[in-house]
């Protein structure tokens, strides 16, 4: 019996050992061969055989039954070859099963990765699980032009609300090296909400552009109106400056300096109230900021112009320049370049003389403006806090709370049938921007360039229709 003690072969070496079995025992008959085969099967299999083993057993029995007492040498070695063939079939079946399991595991991992990626995008970019896209808005017409593209009047298709949408070309942003500026503006806007600021509702992007959806201001900007009016009255100027002050006071309470207060960045709603916009170069206050020198030279404070550390007082200097311009129709320091303006500032301190005060303007108005345009920050009104402006005699008994609640009638009401912008100026600047866009558009094909704008998206719609309940901090009206 020892000569037929073989396993179902798993290698070529096992098959060779089986061929060396005792050939004479094969002639003992069909029943003996069947018994031997079954004994060895049971020795090496403690559990019920699989369907494959049943098939192998059946073949082995049929092979044994076909033999006779005078089997030849050829028939005695045919059994191992049959067994070897069946073991290879078993290998193929198991291999196929392994491949199927591996495919299923890979597919499961891919599905899990997609699910995690989708969850990450929702948690970080789309908190309300709504992906804002360009096709969610009706683009009506262009109402302005900026350094990076157009400003559109748009209508939200779902809620029928009208907004202003800044469409900013990524190619222009890259060309002007202003990625940090636009990302900074989006970040600061998302942390501000006030009735005298232009507030943000959505931010999104596509391959070519960034989009900011903001409050729509039908009244146009103060640059447009000063160009038409040349000057404003004292009551109009005081009202404008009070609106600007409330917006600045809120920004400063959040440790933010605007740093670019000028008529182009001050817009009117249809009722004549002024709001602050364009926070592209706004910054969170930090002690060492001498290198932050961006701004518009005609409205830039001397400490910024001379690369010195600066604080909130730079915004009050710009407010004084605007008051000076509204009163006299010109800026206190002018020049064709930044250097010429800086030289004028260093040469002398400009003040409104008594003889220069227009008719129907008070001495208090001139004093208020003069104290805002002081070259030394420590001498400037507001250096020691915003209460210095509110407590000035020019604003004596001024109804601050009613202004905040927008319960006053504005002394200047913009045209109600117009959008109050110069279409000719938009056309000129748009042509200049298009040339730069074409020159730099190819860069947008790089994934590394697109990655610079990661995280720009914002959906603030859930707060869009809530009434503003904020109160001015520490204010005595």
From TrEMBL:
Residues 396-468 form the AGC-kinase C-terminal domain. InterPro entries: AGC-kinase_C, Prot_kinase_dom, Protein_kinase_ATP_BS, Ser/Thr_kinase_AS, Ser_Thr_kinase_AGC. GO terms for molecular function: ATP binding; protein serine/threonine kinase activity. Keywords: ATP-binding, Coiled coil, Kinase, Nucleotide-binding, Serine/threonine-protein kinase, Transferase. It comes from Paramecium pentaurelia. Residues 89-119 form a coiled coil. Belongs to the protein kinase superfamily. CDD domains: STKc_Yank1. The keyword Transcription regulation does not apply. Residues 137-395 form the Protein kinase domain. It comes from the Eukaryota. PROSITE patterns: AGC_KINASE_CTER, PROTEIN_KINASE_ATP, PROTEIN_KINASE_DOM, PROTEIN_KINASE_ST. This is non-specific serine/threonine protein kinase. Signal peptide: none annotated. Residues 1-82 are annotated as: Disordered. GO terms for biological process: intracellular signal transduction. Residues 25-39, 59-70 have a biased composition (Polar residues). Pfam families: Pkinase. Transmembrane segments: none annotated. ATP binds at residue 176. The keyword ATP-binding applies. It is an enzyme of class 2 (transferase).
């Amino acid at each position: 019996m020892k000569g037929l003690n073989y396993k179902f072969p798993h290698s070529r070496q096992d098959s060779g050992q089986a061929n060396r079995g005792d050939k004479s025992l094969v002639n003992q008959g069909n029943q003996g061969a069947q018994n031997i085969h079954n004994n060895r099967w049971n020795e090496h299999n403690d559990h019920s055989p699989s369907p494959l083993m049943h098939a192998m057993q059946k073949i082995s029995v049929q092979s044994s039954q076909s033999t006779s007492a005078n089997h030849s040498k050829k028939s005695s070695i045919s059994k191992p070859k049959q067994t070897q063939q069946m073991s290879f079939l078993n290998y193929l079946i198991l291999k196929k099963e392994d491949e199927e399991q591996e495919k299923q595991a890979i597919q499961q991992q891919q599905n899990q990765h997609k699910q995690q990626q989708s969850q990450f995008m929702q948690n970080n970019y789309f908190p309300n699980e709504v992906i804002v896209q360009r096709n969610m808005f009706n683009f009506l017409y262009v109402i302005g032009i900026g350094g990076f593209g157009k400003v559109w009047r748009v209508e939200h298709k779902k809620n029928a609300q009208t907004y202003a949408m800044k469409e900013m070309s990524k190619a222009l942003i890259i060309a002007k090296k202003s990625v940090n500026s636009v990302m900074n503006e989006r970040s600061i806007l998302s942390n501000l909400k006030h009735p005298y600021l232009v507030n943000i509702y959505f931010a999104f992007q596509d391959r070519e552009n960034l989009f900011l959806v903001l409050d729509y201001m039908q009244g146009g900007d103060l640059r447009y109106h000063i160009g038409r009016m040349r000057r404003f009255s004292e009551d109009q100027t005081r009202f404008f400056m009070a609106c600007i002050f409330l917006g600045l006071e809120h920004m400063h309470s959040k440790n933010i300096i605007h740093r670019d207060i000028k008529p182009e960045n001050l817009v009117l709603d249809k009722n004549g109230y002024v709001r602050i916009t364009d926070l592209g170069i706004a910054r969170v206050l930090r002690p060492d900021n001498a290198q932050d020198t961006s701004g518009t030279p005609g409205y830039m404070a001397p400490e910024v112009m001379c690369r010195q550390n600066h604080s909130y007082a730079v915004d009050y200097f710009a407010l004084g320049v605007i008051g000076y311009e509204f009163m006299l129709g010109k800026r206190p320091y002018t020049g064709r370049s930044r250097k010429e303006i800086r030289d004028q500032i260093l040469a002398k301190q400009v003040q409104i003389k008594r003889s220069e005060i227009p008719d129907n303007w008070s001495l208090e108005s001139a004093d208020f403006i003069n104290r805002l345009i002081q070259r030394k920050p420590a001498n400037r009104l507001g250096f020691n806090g915003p209460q210095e402006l509110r407590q000035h005699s020019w604003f004596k008994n001024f109804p601050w709370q009613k202004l905040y609640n927008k319960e006053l009638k504005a002394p200047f009401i913009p045209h109600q049938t117009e959008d109050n912008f110069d279409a000719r100026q938009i056309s000129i600047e748009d042509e200049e921007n298009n040339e730069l866009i074409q020159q730099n558009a190819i860069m947008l094909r790089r994934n590394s360039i697109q990655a610079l704008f990661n995280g720009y998206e914002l959906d603030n719609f859930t707060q869009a229709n809530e009434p503003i309940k904020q109160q001015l901090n520490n204010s005595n009206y």
